[in-house]
Design a protein that fits this description.
There is one protein chain. With about 450 residues, the chain is mainly alpha-helical. It has 2 domains: about 5-345, no CATH class; about 355-454. It has helices at about 5-20, 30-40, 45-55, 60-70, 75-80, 80-100, 105-115, 120-125, 130-150, 155-170, 175-190, 190-225, 235-245, 250-270, 270-290, 305-315, 325-335, 340-345, 355-365, 380-385, 390, 400-410, 430-440; strands spanning about 370-375, 395-400, 415-420, 440-445, 450-454. The protein is globular and about 75 Å long.
C-alpha cells in the first residue's frame, strides 16, 4: 500500500501520542485502584476468574493481558503498559473511525485531539481498564458504521466481536453496546435483510460474552444493590464528564461542548440518519448513567469510551472552515487549550496519591513496637507495596468498623492513616469526628493521605 500524506501525518500523530503516554509512565506510585489491579494480576489467570465470579465487578480481560508482562518484570511501568499501548492504538483507530464517519480530514482532526487529550493521556497511564475499553469502543463503532454502509456479514461479525471484547474489559461498556444494538434493531425493523444481519450479529455477540452475562448479571445486581456510597449523582454525571472532556476547565469545556453541538447540527444537515444515531446513543448512555447514579457508585471515568465520539463531533464542527490553512490554525488553537493542563501534569508534581513517599516517611517516623492503623483497612493494598510493618517492627491494624478502631488504639504509640475513602464505608463515617476530637494531626501526604497520632 502506497503511503499518502494523510498516512505520514497519522504516523506523526501516533508517535506524538506514544511519547506523551510513555513518558513518566512508571514515575508515580500505585494508588488504591491500581494496587487492586496488581493484587488481581498476582492472583493469576484462574485466580482472577475466581475473583470475578465471586465479588469483583470488573471482567478479567485487562488483567489477563497484563499478567504475562508483569510476570517478566514487576513495576509500575509494566503494570501500566497495556493501558498505554491501548491509548496509543486508539489514535490511529479514531482516524479510521473518522474516515468512515466523514472523511480523512475529520479523522486526522479527531486523531490530533485524542493524541493530545489530557484526559485520555491520564487514563492511558493508569493501570486500569478504561483506555482499553475505549479502544474496543472505537473499533466497535468503526465496524458498526462500516457494516451499516456495506451490509456485509463480516463487518456485523466484527462488530459483535469488538463489542464482546469491550464487555470482557468493563461491564459498563454494556450500556454503549445496548444503545448501538437498540439503534440497529430500530433501523432494521422494517427490512428483513437488515434485521437478519443484526440478529446474526446479536447471536455472535451473545456467544462471545455468555460467561460474562452469566456471572456479570449477578455482580451487577450486587453493585447496584449496594447503593451510591460514593461518586456523583443525577445531572452532575453529565456535567462532570463534559468538564473532564474540557481539560478539567469550565470555559474550555463550554468551547468543546459548543463545537460538539455545531458538529451534530452539521451532521444533521448532511445526514439526518447519522445525526439521529449520535443523539440516540448519547441519550441512552447519559440517561442510563443518570438513573444508575442513584443506585450505584458513579464516576466520570466509567464513560471514557464516549470521548472519541465526542471528539469526532468537535472535529465535525471544523468543516465550517473551508480553507485548509485555517483548519490547521483552528486545530492548533484547540490543541493549545491543553497546554495549561500539561504544565501541571508534567510539572513534576504528583497527580496520584504518593504511597511510595508516604511509606518511606512512615518508616522513618514510627518507632519499634508502634501500632499503625489503616482506615479503611483496604488501604493496605497500595501501602503494602512501599511499606513493610515487619521490617519496621510495627503492628499493622486494618480497620473496617468503629470497634476495630477503638480496640486497636494504644495511647502514646498509635499512628492512624486515613483517606477520604473512609466516607465510602458507612460503618466508618464517624471516624473523621473521632480523629479531630482525640487524635493529633501530623501531616497530609500527597494527595489525600492523612496521618494522626494518638
Amino acid at each position: 500500500m502506497k503511503l499518502t500524506k494523510e498516512h505520514y501525518i497519522l504516523i506523526a500523530l501516533t508517535t506524538l501520542g506514544a511519547i506523551f503516554r510513555l513518558y513518566n509512565l512508571g514515575r508515580e506510585s500505585l494508588w488504591l485502584d491500581e494496587a487492586a489491579t496488581l493484587m488481581f494480576v498476582e492472583s493469576g489467570f484462574f485466580g482472577m476468574w475466581e475473583h470475578f465470579t465471586t465479588w469483583e465487578p470488573n471482567p478479567p480481560l485487562f488483567i489477563w493481558l497484563t499478567i504475562p508482562i508483569v510476570s517478566i518484570v514487576k513495576s509500575e511501568f509494566t503494570l501500566r503498559l497495556i493501558p498505554a499501548i491501548a491509548g496509543i492504538a486508539t489514535v490511529p483507530a479514531i482516524y479510521y473511525l473518522g474516515k468512515v464517519w466523514r472523511n480523512s480530514t475529520t479523522g486526522l482532526v479527531a486523531a490530533s485531539l485524542l493524541a493530545l487529550s489530557p484526559l485520555h493521556i491520564y487514563y492511558s497511564q493508569e493501570a486500569r481498564a478504561y483506555s482499553l475499553v475505549t479502544l474496543f469502543a472505537v473499533l466497535m463503532l468503526y465496524c458498526f458504521l462500516t457494516a451499516m454502509e456495506t451490509k456485509e456479514y463480516k463487518w456485523w461479525a466484527f462488530t459483535s466481536v469488538c463489542a464482546g471484547l469491550a464487555l470482557w474489559t468493563h461491564l459498563y461498556a454494556g450500556i454503549l453496546i445496548a444503545a448501538i444494538y437498540m439503534y440497529a434493531f430500530f433501523d432494521a425493523w422494517t427490512n428483513k435483510d437488515k434485521l437478519k444481519r443484526v440478529l446474526v450479529s446479536s447471536v455472535i455477540f451473545t456467544w462471545v460474552v455468555l460467561p460474562i452475562i452469566l456471572v456479570g448479571y449477578h455482580l451487577a445486581k450486587i453493585r447496584i444493590g449496594g447503593g451510591a456510597v460514593f461518586g456523583i449523582k443525577g445531572i452532575y454525571v453529565i456535567t462532570d464528564l463534559l468538564w473532564n472532556f474540557g481539560n478539567y476547565t469550565n470555559w474550555i469545556a463550554v468551547i468543546f461542548v459548543a463545537l460538539a453541538c455545531i458538529g451534530i447540527y452539521l451532521i444533521h444537515l448532511d445526514d439526518k440518519k447519522k445525526s439521529f444515531f449520535v443523539i440516540f446513543v448519547l441519550a441512552v448512555v447519559f440517561g442510563a448513567s443518570v438513573i444508575l447514579s442513584y443506585s450505584m457508585p458513579m464516576v466520570a471515568r466509567y464513560l471514557l469510551f464516549l470521548l472519541p465520539l465526542f471528539l469526532l463531533l468537535v472535529a465535525e464542527s471544523l468543516n465550517l472552515v473551508r480553507d485548509r490553512r485555517f483548519q490547521v490554525i483552528a486545530v492548533c488553537s484547540l490543541l493549545a487549550l491543553s497546554v495549561p493542563t500539561f504544565t501541571i501534569y508534567y510539572s513534576g508534581a504528583y497527580i496520584k496519591d504518593d504511597w511510595r513517599g508516604f511509606g518511606s516517611y512512615l518508616q522513618h517516623t514510627t518507632k519499634d513496637g508502634d501500632t499503625v492503623i489503616l482506615i479503611p483497612g483496604y488501604l493496605n493494598l497500595p501501602l503494602a507495596n512501599y511499606y513493610n510493618s515487619s521490617d519496621d517492627h510495627t503492628t499493622m491494624v486494618l480497620v473496617s468498623n468503629m470497634s476495630d478502631l477503638t480496640t486497636g488504639i494504644v495511647p502514646g504509640s498509635t499512628w492512624v492513616v486515613v483517606t477520604p475513602d473512609v466516607n465510602a464505608v458507612p460503618e466508618l463515617r464517624s471516624v473523621p469526628t473521632l480523629l479531630n476530637e482525640h487524635g493529633k494531626p501530623i501531616s497530609r501526604w500527597v494527595y489525600s493521605i492523612d496521618l494522626y497520632r494518638f
